[in-house]
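QA checklist item 7 of 12: single-chain prediction sanity check.
[x] sequence parsed
[x] length recorded as 192
[x] structure emitted
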Amino acid sequence: MDKVRTFIAILLPAAVRRRLAEIEGQLKTSGADVKWVAEENLHITLKFLGCVEPDRLGEVIKAIGSAVEGVNSFDAALSGIGAFPKVSRPSVVWAGVTIGCEELKALAERVEDAMERIGFAREARIFSLHVTLGRLRLPGKPDRLPEIIERLHAEEAGTFRVESVAVMRSDLRPTGPIYTEIGNCKLKSIPQ
């Protein structure tokens, strides 16, 4: 059986994804050759696992469930548009997180620890909290993209409640990836 490309994520509500898609629409006017993330695929990645044996997916879901047990749900907000490695020479365009940063980083660390305990390597890079909006196909040829990112640097995409962590499957297609939720681990519900 084929391995399953798997990642752990915070899924975004429809209204937030819609607002991010509107922002992408403004960014698209730059003329830069960017592979934009489809609205339905916008999310916050906590950890990319790579290709996982199908018979290990249950173990992954169970480990994530244990990792988030007792963690309270919390509010998060997306605001600010930027780029890696820098706005003047973008390779990846992103939306930033302004509320819930500490909680999301702590959640990512719990996920990292849980996955390490079941045999997945720790991420070598420092965790970077963001939502990827697009990747330049030709880095170094951003056209008007830097100036539009600068103009949108304080754009807000909305506030939402983080109530669960999703285990996702990624099927690569010529038209773009298709993401499917294969597990959902709930956080502890607390009154807002």
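[x] summary fact logged: The CA atoms of residues 11 and 23 lie 18 Å apart.
[ ] second reviewer sign-off
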